[in-house]
Amino acid sequence: LTLVPEFYSRLWCVCAAMDMPCDLPQIENGNLAQYYYSFKSYYFPMPKGKKLSYSCIVGYTTERGTQDGRITCTEKGWSPLPQCYSELEHFLAGFPGTYRKRSCITERIKSVFFPSGKCTKPLLENGSFYSTEMDFKIHEELQYKCNPGYHTPSGATEDTVQCRPQGWSFQPSCTKKLGSILHFSPF
Description:
Layout: H1 5-19, E1 30-31, H2 34-38, H3 40-43, E2 51-56, E3 60-61, E4 68-74, E5 77-79, E6 85-86, H4 87-92, H5 104-113, E7 118-120, E8 127-129, E9 135-137, E10 141-146, E11 150-151, E12 158-164, E13 167-168, E14 175-176
Antiparallel strand pairs: 1-2, 2-4, 3-6, 4-5, 7-9, 8-10, 10-12, 11-14, 12-13
Protein backbone atom coordinates (compact mmCIF):
# COMPACT_ATOMS: atom_id res chain seq x y z
CA LEU A 1 0.00 0.00 0.00
CA THR A 2 1.42 3.34 -1.04
CA LEU A 3 0.18 6.52 0.60
CA VAL A 4 0.02 9.49 -1.69
CA PRO A 5 0.74 13.07 -0.58
CA GLU A 6 -2.97 13.95 -0.95
CA PHE A 7 -3.77 11.37 1.73
CA TYR A 8 -1.19 12.89 4.09
CA SER A 9 -2.53 16.39 3.61
CA ARG A 10 -6.10 15.25 4.32
CA LEU A 11 -4.91 13.31 7.36
CA TRP A 12 -3.01 16.39 8.56
CA CYS A 13 -6.11 18.56 8.13
CA VAL A 14 -8.25 16.15 10.15
CA CYS A 15 -5.66 15.90 12.93
CA ALA A 16 -5.12 19.65 13.02
CA ALA A 17 -8.86 20.22 13.28
CA MET A 18 -9.09 17.77 16.18
CA ASP A 19 -6.28 19.50 18.09
CA MET A 20 -7.53 23.02 17.41
CA PRO A 21 -11.16 23.24 18.49
CA CYS A 22 -11.41 26.92 19.47
CA ASP A 23 -12.32 29.62 16.98
CA LEU A 24 -12.31 33.37 17.61
CA PRO A 25 -14.71 33.89 20.53
CA GLN A 26 -17.55 36.39 20.16
CA ILE A 27 -17.72 38.38 23.39
CA GLU A 28 -20.78 40.57 23.77
CA ASN A 29 -19.76 43.78 25.55
CA GLY A 30 -16.12 42.72 25.52
CA ASN A 31 -13.09 42.37 23.27
CA LEU A 32 -9.83 40.56 22.77
CA ALA A 33 -6.65 42.42 21.89
CA GLN A 34 -7.10 43.98 18.42
CA TYR A 35 -4.35 41.87 16.82
CA TYR A 36 -6.48 38.73 17.29
CA TYR A 37 -9.15 40.30 15.06
CA SER A 38 -6.63 41.70 12.57
CA PHE A 39 -4.73 38.40 12.21
CA LYS A 40 -7.54 35.93 12.91
CA SER A 41 -6.34 33.40 10.33
CA TYR A 42 -2.94 33.25 12.04
CA TYR A 43 -4.23 32.72 15.60
CA PHE A 44 -7.39 30.68 14.99
CA PRO A 45 -8.41 27.98 15.31
CA MET A 46 -6.46 27.86 18.56
CA PRO A 47 -5.12 24.58 20.00
CA LYS A 48 -6.31 23.00 23.24
CA GLY A 49 -4.60 24.32 26.34
CA LYS A 50 -3.98 27.83 25.01
CA LYS A 51 -5.25 30.73 27.09
CA LEU A 52 -6.66 34.10 26.06
CA SER A 53 -7.30 37.25 28.03
CA TYR A 54 -10.27 39.47 27.26
CA SER A 55 -11.55 42.80 28.53
CA CYS A 56 -15.07 44.00 29.16
CA ILE A 57 -16.07 47.43 27.91
CA VAL A 58 -16.72 50.26 30.36
CA GLY A 59 -19.78 49.55 32.52
CA TYR A 60 -19.36 45.77 32.20
CA THR A 61 -17.41 43.21 34.21
CA THR A 62 -16.73 39.49 34.22
CA GLU A 63 -18.80 37.20 36.41
CA ARG A 64 -16.17 37.68 39.11
CA GLY A 65 -16.69 41.45 38.96
CA THR A 66 -13.36 42.28 37.29
CA GLN A 67 -12.73 44.21 34.08
CA ASP A 68 -10.54 41.43 32.59
CA GLY A 69 -11.10 37.71 32.24
CA ARG A 70 -9.12 34.68 31.11
CA ILE A 71 -10.37 31.70 29.12
CA THR A 72 -8.80 28.38 28.13
CA CYS A 73 -9.29 26.38 24.95
CA THR A 74 -10.59 22.90 25.79
CA GLU A 75 -11.79 20.00 23.65
CA LYS A 76 -15.34 21.35 24.12
CA GLY A 77 -14.46 24.96 23.28
CA TRP A 78 -13.70 28.00 25.43
CA SER A 79 -13.91 27.55 29.19
CA PRO A 80 -15.30 29.36 30.96
CA LEU A 81 -17.44 31.03 28.30
CA PRO A 82 -16.22 34.61 27.96
CA GLN A 83 -19.03 36.84 29.20
CA CYS A 84 -19.34 40.44 30.30
CA TYR A 85 -22.23 41.47 32.53
CA SER A 86 -23.45 44.99 33.12
CA GLU A 87 -22.51 46.38 36.50
CA LEU A 88 -26.24 46.94 36.92
CA GLU A 89 -26.84 43.19 36.55
CA HIS A 90 -24.23 42.52 39.25
CA PHE A 91 -26.01 45.01 41.48
CA LEU A 92 -29.43 43.44 40.87
CA ALA A 93 -28.07 39.93 41.46
CA GLY A 94 -27.95 40.76 45.17
CA PHE A 95 -31.71 41.33 45.38
CA PRO A 96 -34.18 38.42 45.68
CA GLY A 97 -36.73 38.14 42.91
CA THR A 98 -34.59 39.72 40.20
CA TYR A 99 -33.02 37.93 37.27
CA ARG A 100 -29.29 38.07 36.96
CA LYS A 101 -28.73 37.69 33.22
CA ARG A 102 -30.53 39.51 30.41
CA SER A 103 -33.85 39.97 32.14
CA CYS A 104 -36.66 42.31 31.26
CA ILE A 105 -36.01 44.11 34.53
CA THR A 106 -32.37 44.88 33.78
CA GLU A 107 -33.18 45.89 30.21
CA ARG A 108 -35.92 48.24 31.45
CA ILE A 109 -33.62 49.79 34.05
CA LYS A 110 -30.90 50.23 31.44
CA SER A 111 -33.35 52.08 29.22
CA VAL A 112 -34.16 54.40 32.14
CA PHE A 113 -30.54 55.01 33.10
CA PHE A 114 -29.26 55.16 29.51
CA PRO A 115 -32.20 56.77 27.67
CA SER A 116 -30.19 58.24 24.84
CA GLY A 117 -26.87 57.71 23.25
CA LYS A 118 -25.12 57.17 20.03
CA CYS A 119 -22.34 55.20 18.44
CA THR A 120 -19.65 56.59 16.19
CA LYS A 121 -18.79 54.58 13.09
CA PRO A 122 -16.00 52.15 14.07
CA LEU A 123 -12.75 51.65 12.19
CA LEU A 124 -12.69 48.83 9.65
CA GLU A 125 -9.64 47.57 7.77
CA ASN A 126 -9.99 45.49 4.59
CA GLY A 127 -13.66 46.33 4.20
CA SER A 128 -16.23 49.10 3.85
CA PHE A 129 -19.53 50.24 5.29
CA TYR A 130 -22.70 50.66 3.25
CA SER A 131 -23.63 53.83 5.13
CA THR A 132 -21.80 57.16 4.89
CA GLU A 133 -23.24 58.31 8.24
CA MET A 134 -20.74 58.79 11.08
CA ASP A 135 -23.13 58.70 14.08
CA PHE A 136 -25.83 56.13 14.83
CA LYS A 137 -28.68 56.07 17.34
CA ILE A 138 -29.24 53.25 19.80
CA HIS A 139 -30.68 50.15 18.04
CA GLU A 140 -29.62 51.37 14.57
CA GLU A 141 -27.68 48.87 12.51
CA LEU A 142 -24.60 49.34 10.37
CA GLN A 143 -23.93 46.87 7.58
CA TYR A 144 -20.43 46.25 6.26
CA LYS A 145 -18.75 44.11 3.62
CA CYS A 146 -15.24 42.76 3.36
CA ASN A 147 -12.90 43.30 0.44
CA PRO A 148 -12.38 40.33 -1.93
CA GLY A 149 -10.27 37.65 -0.23
CA TYR A 150 -11.39 38.71 3.27
CA HIS A 151 -14.20 37.56 5.54
CA THR A 152 -16.07 38.49 8.72
CA PRO A 153 -15.54 36.65 12.05
CA SER A 154 -18.43 34.34 11.08
CA GLY A 155 -16.80 33.50 7.73
CA ALA A 156 -19.24 35.53 5.60
CA THR A 157 -18.38 38.42 3.30
CA GLU A 158 -20.92 40.77 4.93
CA ASP A 159 -22.22 41.34 8.45
CA THR A 160 -24.19 43.83 10.52
CA VAL A 161 -23.41 45.46 13.88
CA GLN A 162 -25.97 47.16 16.10
CA CYS A 163 -25.56 50.33 18.15
CA ARG A 164 -26.35 49.59 21.79
CA PRO A 165 -26.28 51.83 24.88
CA GLN A 166 -22.83 50.51 25.75
CA GLY A 167 -21.45 50.65 22.18
CA TRP A 168 -21.42 48.43 19.11
CA SER A 169 -22.65 44.84 19.48
CA PHE A 170 -19.17 43.67 18.38
CA GLN A 171 -16.11 45.08 16.64
CA PRO A 172 -16.55 44.67 12.87
CA SER A 173 -13.52 43.06 11.26
CA CYS A 174 -12.37 41.55 7.97
CA THR A 175 -9.56 39.00 7.99
CA LYS A 176 -7.68 37.32 5.17
CA LYS A 177 -9.19 34.05 4.00
CA LEU A 178 -6.98 30.98 4.24
CA GLY A 179 -6.35 29.11 1.01
CA SER A 180 -8.72 26.19 0.60
CA ILE A 181 -6.02 23.90 -0.82
CA LEU A 182 -3.23 22.67 1.42
CA HIS A 183 -0.11 21.35 -0.26
CA PHE A 184 1.94 18.53 1.17
CA SER A 185 5.63 19.05 1.64
CA PRO A 186 7.54 16.01 2.94
CA PHE A 187 10.33 18.18 4.44
